[in-house]
């Protein structure tokens, strides 16, 4: 098997989603850190890999795959011993795809709208409507969790994708256990994974803390 290389940053939720997938599959990976704050993703050599200048990017023996959801599907399809993380059955797969798109189009998009305002635009306030949009997203996730995992009774890559964002977002927009008991139970379930802490635990908390610290710093500037 060729060596897998992941262009990544531990702060980044989609990178952590891929790291969870890699660990779940028991794959070895070389990590190349892309320092977004230093603009490493805008350098010509990185733009050659991904003209959309986002991380994560996977290099599998010269085959370049961009975008976390596409990377996770690729890794499971190519390397998994069974299809539980991304089922081949069209109905089950459609449920996973729906949850992946929910992460991309709702959770991550709404998180980004707050986090980038603070990190890149130097703001120290979070407008009420942006907070409400996140709370609505929490409600949608809570109502989606009719089973143990986001796409049914078994853990899939959609759980990795959603937890990577939720674990950072909840540090900035509080998520009360009494209001969202199913989300809290789901988070606890995923935390039991032996590789959770290394792949998502620290990074998830750290990004939330980084955004809050930056918010304070911006307020003083
Ligand atoms: N849908 C993409 C989102 C990737 C993304 O936006 N990554 C951020 C870091 S969390 C990034 O690279 N931002 C730099 C940029 O957009 O220029 C995925 O899941 O891979």
TrEMBL record:
It comes from the Eukaryota. It catalyses: RX + glutathione = an S-substituted glutathione + a halide anion + H(+). GO terms for biological process: glutathione metabolic process. GO terms for molecular function: glutathione transferase activity. The keyword Transferase applies. Residues 2-83 form the GST N-terminal domain. InterPro entries: Glutathione-S-Trfase_C-like, Glutathione-S-Trfase_C_sf, Glutathione_S-Trfase, Glutathione_S-Trfase_N, Thioredoxin-like_sf. It holds the Pfam family GST_C_2. Gene3D superfamilies: 1.20.1050.10, Glutaredoxin (3.40.30.10). It is an enzyme of class 2 (transferase). Keywords: Transferase. Residues 89-221 form the GST C-terminal domain. Its EC number is 2.5.1.18. PANTHER family: GLUTATHIONE S TRANSFERASE D10, ISOFORM A-RELATED, GLUTATHIONE S TRANSFERASE E11, ISOFORM A-RELATED. Belongs to the GST superfamily. Theta family. Homodimer. This is glutathione transferase. It comes from Anopheles plumbeus.
